[in-house]
Write a structure and sequence with these properties.
By secondary structure, the protein is α/β, with parallel strands linked by helices. It has 24 helices and 25 strands. The relative contact order is 0.16.
């Protein structure tokens, strides 16, 4: 623990009480920088999506935004965006948007609020942090954030505050850990072929991502390849979603069985001569060992596991085996299982067995995170980070807040939270634990938000936040290759503030505003990041709108060798010590049942296998009109999605007496919820799908689908297995 002494407490309390300097607000749009009346502004979609679409937005004479569309001159966005972002004015001007700081006046969650000034709100937050630190040490405060904005400045400045104050660290596990780790365990680097090369492919395999609903630009380039080259589109998923309906070959697997399919495909490649032995001899660590291992991984073996027919497996293996320009577009969804890291690595390995990396339009792509090389050390305050400060797992917030010793790293309690850009009361697993933790009387919570989310409703102080067209920021696109500028286009309401503003004002009240990195506005931060990263300046990026950071063909396709010192792809990953962008800090170490992970690609049943008491497997897949818990507040999204439902295969519903529209109960050891049933052919029997995320209050009993999901860490480096849940299902007796 990092307790502070009495004199320091007195100083901080005095700073908190006496500080009354003028507040900086978002960089104003001056006459010099204004785009003018009836003009078009250029910016970036800020939401948690790999596409980071470049946008053109009509700006009206009265200073409002109008039509939003994809930038036609950006080679990846190519003029196409998803429907929810196209309707962004509905969100920006929503009557329910938060406009004033609020203080809770009743019991937590009762909805009793009093409007207060910004000065009073920030003073109360700083005072609560000082008191928490005085009682339990600095680690009692936990800055908690995520990717509600992908803007580098507005998202990551909170890290500077926590490093300077030595608050508890934030180990972000909820989204990418399994997918990124599985990919990098093979390649040694988080990069891959230019995603625009999908348009030059002869076969595009979209594996484990519902791209029509969640990454529309993937479909733009895949469909272009089909129209111009006659390319085949293969989609692998667990139910008949909109992307599956666009496929030339749709493979519906049971949840958590993707590695079995991948192993059978590689078995066939070795068996039938599709494997590129010369390529593997040069570029892979142990092709002979892999081939021997795969001898028993026959199509018949995989069929029994995946639910696919032997004929489907053979046809898929033949298609990719005879098509040099096969582009494997690997998504996040199939990695959100307890064996997800292994599944990602297995699917990735197919491209190496086939030698697909050698060809333009071939290889395997997941994320381009490594190529951008953004130096954010000043922004995040990494120079004064303390490696001994505990790192708390984002996904285990319920366990942290309810006093689980292991989740707390055997330290003291968390008694104060500052939350930006995320909604853990809705999106985090083990929702009942999360709720119990947030309702603690001794927990102080400050939430900076755009709407009164499930998390804001249980806060002590709620602060209103700007939206992306109301502030400057810098973006990078993991699913493509551009660094993009998102300049401020319109003035925000006078009573809302940026994330950076909140961090700056708290730093002043807490006596750390003299630390390096504080005192800069958004444009200064952007300029310093770009300059330190050798990408030019703010003005350069403002003129160009974006930077194409895609490396050359040889680098992207690993022609000069993979990312390990010996240049070899790893069929035999080192699960305990191998690389990952999301690797836990040293004071945490490997997580989950790491001893059960296989030496070579294989099906490993560390998933929640259905059993007699829980005969169904539940996946919590994304809905088309929502983005995590964003857009759930807009009327058009509600109208398109209808209501919270669980999708049931008719052959599963009939023996239970369930008909379309019935209220049903789903449950497991974590709890139970009620949903309306929607009978939908197209999933494997025994598989249930609940698309979301719906706000908790939209469910019949005020509890969301994450009541049923678990927060146990996935091997080897953590993560949340949102699509890996065994449940029982029954018709509601009421």
């Amino acid at each position: 623990m990092n307790k502070i002494d009495a004199p320091q407490m007195t100083l901080l309390a005095r700073i908190s009480i006496e500080y009354r300097k003028p507040m900086n607000v978002a960089t104003p749009i001056t006459a010099k920088t204004a785009l003018g009346h009836n003009s078009v502004g250029h910016t970036v979609c800020p939401h948690d999506c790999p596409s980071a679409c470049a946008l053109d937005i009509d700006l009206t004479p009265d200073g409002r935004i109008g039509r939003v569309r994809g930038a036609a001159d950006n080679s990846y966005t190519a003029g196409v965006i998803c429907a929810k972002v196209a309707r962004y004015s509905e969100r920006l001007y929503h009557p329910g948007r938060l406009m004033f700081p609020k203080r809770r006046t009743g019991r937590k969650g009762e909805g009793s609020w009093q409007e207060i000034s910004w000065e009073a709100a920030l003073d109360e937050i700083a005072d609560a942090f000082v008191k928490a630190e005085a009682k339990y040490g600095s680690e009692a405060i936990w800055p908690y954030f995520y990717a509600g904005t992908m803007g580098q400045v507005q998202r990551d400045s909170i890290e500077r505050l926590r490093h300077a104050k030595k608050y508890s660290g934030f180990f972000g596990t909820i989204c990418t850990n399994m997918a990124w780790t599985g990919y990098v365990m093979g390649t040694g680097a988080l990069r891959g072929p230019d995603p625009r090369e999908m348009a030059k492919s002869d076969c595009v395999v979209i594996w484990g991502t519902n791209a029509v609903s969640t990454q529309v630009n993937v479909m733009t380039h895949a469909v272009k390849a089909r129209k111009e080259r006659g390319a085949k589109i293969v989609v692998i998923d667990i139910y008949e979603n909109p992307t599956m309906k666009q496929a030339d070959m749709a493979l519906t697997v049971r949840p958590g069985t993707d590695a079995a399919l991948a192993c059978a495909v590689m078995h066939i490649a070795f068996r039938d001569g599709y494997a590129d032995r010369d390529y593997m001899a040069k570029y892979a660590d142990d092709p002979a060992g892999l081939e021997a291992h795969l001898k028993a991984k026959t199509p018949e073996w995989a069929s029994a596991i995946t639910g696919l027919s032997v004929e489907e497996i053979e046809a898929f293996a033949r298609l990719v085996g005879t098509t040099q320009k096969t582009f494997f577009r690997l998504g996040y969804g199939f990695a959100r299982q307890r064996n997800g890291t292994v599944a990602m690595h297995a699917a990735l390995s197919i491209a190496t067995v086939l030698g697909s990396w050698q060809y333009e339009g071939g290889g395997a792509f997941h994320n381009n995170g490594e190529i951008f090389r953004l130096n954010k050390s000043e922004l995040m305050g990494t120079a004064y980070a303390d490696p001994d400060i505990r790192q708390l797992d984002q996904s285990q917030i319920g366990r942290v807040l309810t006093g689980d010793a292991e989740a707390l790293r055997h330290g003291g309690p968390v008694t104060a939270l500052l939350i930006q850009n995320t909604n853990p009361m809705n999106v985090a697993p083990e929702q009942r634990l999360v709720r119990r933790g947030f309702l603690r009387d001794d927990l102080f919570v400050a939430v900076h938000e755009q709407f009164m989310t499930d998390t804001a409703e249980v806060a002590d102080i709620v602060l209103p936040a700007t939206m992306f067209v109301e502030h400057d920021d810098l973006y990078r696109a993991g699913g493509q290759q551009h660094i993009l500028l998102g300049p401020k286009l319109v003035e925000p309401p006078s009573t809302v503030r940026t994330n950076l503003f909140v961090i700056e004002e708290l730093a002043k009240r807490l006596g750390i505003d003299h630390f390096p990195g504080f005192g800069l506005d958004e444009r200064q931060h952007i300029d310093r990041i770009l300059t330190a990263s050798h990408w030019g300046s703010y003005d350069d990026l403002a003129r160009g709108k974006w930077i194409d950071a895609q490396p050359d063909f040889e680098t992207a396709h690993y022609i000069k060798g993979f990312g390990y010192p010996d240049g070899k792809f790893r069929f035999r990953p080192d699960w305990a010590n191998g690389p990952s962008p999301d690797k836990p800090p040293k004071n945490v170490g490997p997580l989950g049942p790491i001893a059960e992970l296989p030496v070579f690609p294989d099906q490993v049943d560390v998933i929640e296998v259905a059993d007699e008491a829980h005969p169904f497997r539940l996946a919590t897949s994304p809905a088309r009109s929502f983005l995590n818990s964003s857009f759930t507040e807009t009327k058009s999204s509600h109208e398109r999605e209808g209501r919270p439902e669980v999708m049931i295969e008719p052959t599963d519903a009939e023996p239970l007496g369930i008909v379309d529209g019935d209220i049903v109960r789903l449950g497991n050891a974590r709890g139970e919820i009620r949903l309306h049933a929607r009978l939908v052919p197209g999933a494997r029997p025994g598989v249930l799908i609940a698309e979301g995320l719906w706000p908790n209050h939209k469910h019949l009993d005020g509890e969301g689908i994450n009541v049923l999901t678990g927060a146990d860490a996935v091997a080897p480096y953590g993560g949340a297995a949102f699509h890996d849940n065994k449940v029982w299902l029954r018709k509601d007796a009421a």
